[in-house]
């Protein structure tokens, strides 16, 4: 019920404006988002790097509807990569990119060219790019883009979503030498025809996919906050004799920070997915939907207006 409320709130522009301008927002926003600007993103990246954590920076922009907006997103990534290089934060900090933000729905070729330019800038800065996974209608195009991008930039990362029925097959395809693959449960609401619907089935699929990736030759990036799946990953690393530099954990900024510290303290590579940018509202509501402990936030933010 509460989860549905937050997800509905994520789509409400009016509530978004109220919450964005409410003073009470600041603390909770800062918990999950680095800030509005590239400067703030670099500052928080440095704090995380000083704590021994790796980072994947994600720019939260408005929905891309025009070629001009897509170009502006590309330019934002080029600029932040320059800042990361100048700050000496590469290779510890990489970037995560959504093809939709680069105009995939308007012109697939343009989005690919922008992604290629970002990969080239990342390589020049001494770091890498991961292409985020979006809804299932884009999976083929996004994975094809990763394959193409890898011709020039072999370290470009792919993301696979365990809730999709196809993903075990994709894991087999991608568990090859040099291949970086982030495995997550999947954040999009998908029909039964393409995706497992129950949490148990998604978890079972996650473990099957994890087994394929951990027993394969690639570099698995295990993106979950789920205590059981984290523990199974630690077990599989021992079972498949992977040292801590041969896979990594990934968690969202602000989610289970004590677990982030525990894993890093245990010698694991831990990468924090760190969003920044003006359009943080929808992202924040989706985080709150996953964490009803913060239920009072929206009510207080609105009541304070
Ligand atoms: P869940 O079942 O959501 O949570 C399991 C447990 O984790 C909960 O029971 C709770 O104990 C704990 N937990 C979860 N959230 C919170 C919270 N906010 N506060 C406190 N405890 C919490 N999805 C995509 O579709 N495409 C992507 O490219 C993508 N990239 C991602 C990158 C990273 C680094 C991460 C961590 C996730 C990414 N996701 C992506 C989102 C992912 O698919 C899931 O929707 C999200 O991670 C929640 O799944 P979970 O594995 O954490 O398990």
TrEMBL record:
Pathway: Amino-acid degradation; L-proline degradation into L-glutamate; L-glutamate from L-proline: step 1/2. It holds the Pfam family Pro_dh. It catalyses: L-proline + a quinone = (S)-1-pyrroline-5-carboxylate + a quinol + H(+). Its EC number is 1.5.5.2. It comes from the Bacteria. The keyword Flavoprotein applies. InterPro entries: FAD-linked_oxidoreductase-like, PRODH_bac_arc, Proline_DH_dom, Proline_oxidase. Its cofactor is FAD. Residues 44-299 form the Proline dehydrogenase domain. Keywords: FAD, Flavoprotein, Nucleotide-binding, Oxidoreductase, Proline metabolism. PANTHER family: PROLINE DEHYDROGENASE 1, MITOCHONDRIAL, PROLINE OXIDASE. This is proline dehydrogenase.
């Amino acid at each position: 019920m509460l989860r549905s409320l937050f997800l509905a709130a994520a789509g409400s522009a009016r509530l978004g404006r109220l919450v964005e301008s409410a003073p009470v927002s600041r603390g909770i926003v800062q918990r999950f988002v680095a800030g509005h600007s590239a400067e703030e993103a670099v500052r928080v990246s440095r704090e995380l790097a000083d704590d021994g954590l790796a980072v994947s920076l994600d720019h939260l922009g408005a929905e891309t509807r025009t070629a001009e907006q897509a170009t502006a997103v590309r330019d934002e990534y080029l600029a932040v990569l320059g800042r990361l290089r100048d700050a000496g934060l590469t290779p510890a900090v990489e970037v995560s990119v959504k093809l939709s933000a680069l105009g995939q729905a308007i012109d697939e070729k343009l989005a690919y060219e922008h992604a290629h330019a970002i990969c080239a800038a990342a390589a020049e800065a001494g770091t890498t790019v991961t292409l985020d996974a979006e809804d299932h209608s884009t999976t083929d195009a996004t994975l094809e883009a990763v394959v193409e991008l890898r011709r020039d930039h072999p370290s470009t990362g792919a993301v696979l979503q365990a809730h999709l029925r196809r993903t075990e097959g994709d894991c087999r395809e991608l568990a090859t030498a040099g291949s970086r693959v982030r495995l997550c449960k999947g954040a999009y609401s998908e029909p039964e025809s393409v995706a497992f619907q129950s949490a148990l089935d998604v978890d079972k699929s996650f473990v099957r996919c994890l087994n394929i990736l951990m027993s394969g030759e690639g570099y698995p990036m295990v993106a979950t906050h789920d205590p059981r799946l984290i523990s199974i990953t630690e077990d599989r690393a021992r079972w498949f004799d992977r040292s801590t530099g041969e896979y990594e954990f990934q968690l969202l900024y602000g989610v289970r920070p004590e677990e982030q510290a525990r894993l890093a303290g245990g010698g694991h590579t831990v990468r924090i997915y760190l969003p920044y940018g003006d359009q943080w509202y929808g992202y924040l509501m989706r985080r709150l939907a996953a964490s009803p402990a913060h239920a009072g936030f929206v009510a207080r933010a609105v009541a304070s207006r």
